[in-house]
Please model this.
Amino acid sequence: MERNTTTISREDIARQMDYCHAVAQLNAQRPQPPLAFVDTYGCQQNEADSERIRGYLQEMGYGFTQDEEQADVIVINTCAIREHAEQRVLGNLGALVHVKRRHPGQLICLCGCMAQEAHVAQKVKESYRHVDLVFGPQVLWRFPEFIHSLLTARGRVFQTPDLPGSIAEGIPVVRQDKVKAWVSIMYGCNNFCSYCIVPYVRGRERSRQPEDILSEVRQLVEEGYKDITLLGQNVNSYGKDLENPMDFADLLSQVNDIPGDFLIRFMTSHPKDATQKLFETMARCEKVAPVLHLPFQAGNDRILKVMNRRHTREQYLEKIRALKALIPDIVLTSDVIVGFPGETTEEFEDTLKVLEEVRYDALFTFIYSPRVGTPAAKMDDPMPREEKLRNFNRLVALQDQISEEKHAAYIGKTVRCLIDGQGDDAEYPFTARTPGNRLVRVKGGTADDVGQFREIHITGANKWSLYGEMTEK
Ligand code: 5AD
Ligand code: SF4
Model:
């Protein structure tokens, strides 16, 4: 297949670094080092993007704060998946007008998926005049240039070009965590599920070169990272656009071959592209965590068809059975939408049947939210909101019961977990993750255990988490 992915050249990134250094010189003249606040909404891809925004900001001489009153630059990295989150962002953005009044010269920036929506950018331009910069995900790599322009020229900057997207290597990164790291392996989505805004705002699928991914992971492992998540909207179509095509399973094998004691996770997988080869690779590769997030969205074939999911319920279940046959203790999670336009309660009950058959360890549940510009937003949606809510509550109740039962089955076992942080529970001061990514609250241990794999004896459980004790090292 012809590679039509645009790669941003090293020279282009070098020019952005020059902008960083020019901004750093301006900042060096201030009486105190300036501060930036980066606020992230949405998925891990956004978290990963925010780590790059912080990387650039650090090069520009900014320190970091969580307090918008202290910040000289505020960056809000947004999500467009559901309307509710958008309303919240617009509410918070509106309130910043008062903060900025107390802090003249403060720069307010909006980016991410929501910023890329034409109607949002328009609204901000007209009604949120205190917002200085709006930029979309496709031009994140030009962030230093935009900040430089704001500091040296008058006026606001709006940059949301409708581009298919590109790959930019070499952007600096400030990671939020010392134990877990995100590694984007591809960007964009070609699937156009009929409810979803992502393909419109994140552009077409494009894969990073495998050697760039492998060297990033190698470096993370050398730095001591223990839990690495490979990210993409649909990782199972990784590599289709590369000059030397390779598939996701091959990439996974190569990441697994990197020496070191670490776990590999990945998300998100699309069921239509999840292959037997992938499952066999997961079973064979000892560093690949025994967990799969495989969204099914709905259990009814008519709804799956209008969602444009391109798989049936039986095809999905067949894949789950094949995976369980290879990895019996696989931890499964999924995304589900309730109340898609035209879904009847009877059709919704097919979703419950999938839960009963698969028995997910955890589920991410969403009430359908119409997104401007998607085909589903134009479909008839006669079901009253109360009925959707009733169905949603039935779904959550069933999943809570299954999660509780699945968690209870851990009691009495000893599991090698990654201690990933300190929690706020005095009795169980540490948090850990099982290989399948279930949260464990841990008694015993010291701060030195954070970032290490430890044997944890599981003593209790509820629907949200497990409880355990660190056994002798
Ligand atoms: N309404 C509700 N949920 C949605 N998702 C995506 N678009 C919408 C929408 N318009 C959910 C899907 C997807 C997850 C990330 O968000 O379940 O897998
Ligand atoms: Fe959205 Fe479907 Fe692409 Fe996932 S696969 S990002 S749900 S269009």
